Amino acid sequence: MGIKLRLILMNFLQFFIWGSWLLTIGKYCDNTMHWSYTEFGAIFSTMGIASLLMPALAGIIADRWINAEKLYGCFHFTAALILVLVPFINNPTTMFWVMLLNMMFYMPTISLSITVAYTTLKGKNMDIIKDYPPIRVWGTIGFIVALWVISLSGLGALAAQFYVASGASLLLGIYAFTMPACPPLGKGHKSSLIESLGLNAFSLFKSSKMALFFIFAMFLGASLQLTNAYGANFLDDFAKLDIYKNLVSVRYPEIIMSISQISETLFILTIPFFMKRFGIKKVMLFSMIAWVLRFGLFSFGNPAEGLWMIILSCIIYGMAFDFFNISGSLFVESQSNPQIKASAQGLFMMMTNGFGAILGSVLSGIIIDRFYRHNGDIDWSGIWLTFAIYSLIIAILFAIFFKHKHDPKAISVTSH
Question: Domains in the chain, start-ordered, CATH in brackets?
Fold first, then answer.
């Protein structure tokens, strides 16, 4: 099997695991367990809490002591064992701690998978700006396949979805140990105390440009958590209304939401062109504007005559997600020296899926329960409009304060 095919399979399984429960856990917590949005927001925030430390710590370990592919495999083994416990939990507090433990091992695998892919491609003298996106697109396909399997099998509101995720995680854990060796590039390097502790990736904050980039990445990370947490619940709530409850878009909301991931597969392939043609600032601005449209269209859409707005919102999501997550990781890669590549990706993960996820998950749950939930009814239009205004403010501030001169040659990332 060629190296690209091997990386494709790795990415497929990586996001199949996440797709098995990420968009349906809200339905499970709400419809099956009957927990509040505040409790669900806390559970969903475990991704963010885990990302505050674990991706950066995993990056440090992979940079200095353990092969990235081996660490990657061990983490998936452990996450698989923890996911098996989830169906036995009937208390939101216990669920919070078990999911936090699971996330502490799963979230680092996202940045580790990037490190394994980048290291492997550069070892073959490939340009990751050109060669990585077509590989990464299969991660999104894996997410879509998992989402469709869970939705069409009726597991979206059941605990069995976590068994599916556990099985995929176990399989990927085994497969990881067959991947090409990705040895620690910082091993044996004479270092200061800060370098020995693996904290030198934080030196990127010395650059005002990178500091601002990470701060805005955090705010965009909040937007990502909002759409992941509440998208399927938003459509599912229309089932309470007689005029909507028998519509296919309401009976299978995850299928409609999967249009977002299908859109991802297309926009990922455009990243090499947009990055080299427009540069990171404009690409990130495109992402922010897309988030405004994503939430705004949700605010005014419905599953009947307004279904076109929801579908258009899902299509726009591809640009919102890819131009932020994938382009952002490529930019961080281009700004980091070889000794801190994994740590830098962990730092990016910490800001987006760490601080950003906590900001989006916890505050949104509290805000919804306090301002938009009345006698069991939820004002989804107001919720999405609030999120759209938030994203617009972030876009305006980013356009004003982030300074970066685009150099097409500077972002061609090959072996060092």
Answer: 3-187+194-411 (1.20.1250.20)
